[in-house]
Amino acid sequence: MAIEIKTVGIIGAGQMGSGIAHVCAMAGLDVRLNDRDTAKIYSGLATIDGNLARQVSKGTITDEQRRSGVSRILAAESYDDLAACDLVIEAATEDEATKRQIFTALCPSLKPDALVATNTSSISITRLAAATDRPERFIGIHFMNPVPVMQLVELIRGIATADPTYVSAKAFIAKLGKISTMSEDFPAFIVNRILLPMINEAIYTLYEGVGSVEAIDTAMKLGANHPMGPLQLADFIGLDTCLSVMQVLYEGLADSKYRPCPLLVKYVEAGWLGRKTKRGFYDYRGETPVPTR
Ligand SMILES: NC(=O)c1ccc[n+]([C@@H]2O[C@H](COP(=O)([O-])OP(=O)(O)OC[C@H]3O[C@@H](n4cnc5c(N)ncnc54)[C@H](O)[C@@H]3O)[C@@H](O)[C@H]2O)c1
């Protein structure tokens, strides 16, 4: 039986988890936000409040809507705090071992009929489902960044995902006012299968000295009509996430055309992960982003 989602648990309070919490709360759902790092839960809550305050100042929502939205999101410091959830969405770091450990530890705390989803950008839904006690109630729900702005959500069924799980997830996305598409369970699904090799190629173009950061981003903005340059977009996504997706494509499809650019590897090794660490292809420590190459 399909179920109506009223209470949503979110694991991982980074840029995606807090964005998902934001849109769920504004759609009238109750939200429980968890992170391995308790401080991240509270910084996530502060970020959501700040983003809603910006919407109030732009006049897109009222202050009353902001206050009632914020009041619907509670901190969940342990998995037991997710016991009442109808759906739990995992939005932790893009690393298969991390996600598998979360699912194994999480499931004993959940209601038997609760659905479990992952916001992974690339990892096999079928393999992640196998780390749960309910593969038939498991599905990929891939939100885009920034969640409050982007319309699309990719739904990905694992081999065991049951029809009612898919129907419930589709209705949940519609309730958030977003559009869903269905992708088969292949590495990186549709959006990132196409987008990330383009970003990786832009990094190769920089690595080989074909152009500077500014030249590459300007070329793609003005020459291909992209709203944002590929290097700016990479910083926005997070370079660690970009590298993980390329590794999943490279290993999952066994094709050398997906080889991650060595410069991307080096940036991640340096801890230069883009906007979230204030340094990536641009330096964000000043008032305006400055290209680093
Ligand atoms: N950044 C994007 O553009 C984007 C878009 C779509 C999907 N995603 C996916 O969303 C997920 C999260 O990405 P993000 O950009 O929010 O990353 P992020 O680095 O901003 O946040 C990840 C959060 O996960 C937490 N975390 C790590 N291990 C955990 C654990 N064991 N238990 C609980 N929390 C844990 C971290 O403390 C951090 O707060 C990834 O799977 C990523 O691929 C990212």
UniProtKB/TrEMBL annotation:
InterPro entries: 3-OHacyl-CoA_DH (IPR022694), 3-OHacyl-CoA_DH_CS (IPR006180), 3-OHacyl-CoA_DH_NAD-bd (IPR006176), 3HC_DH_C (IPR006108), 6-PGluconate_DH-like_C_sf (IPR008927), 6PGD_dom2 (IPR013328), NAD(P)-bd_dom_sf (IPR036291)
Alphabetical UniProt keywords: Oxidoreductase
PROSITE patterns: 3HCDH
Stretches assigned to the 3-hydroxyacyl-CoA dehydrogenase C-terminal domain: 189-284
Record domain 3-hydroxyacyl-CoA dehydrogenase NAD binding: where: 7-181
Record bears the keyword Cell inner membrane: no
Segment forming the signal sequence: none
Pfam families found in the cross-reference section: 3HCDH, 3HCDH_N
GO function term, MF aspect, one: 3-hydroxybutyryl-CoA dehydrogenase activity
Protein name in UniProt: 3-hydroxybutyryl-CoA dehydrogenase
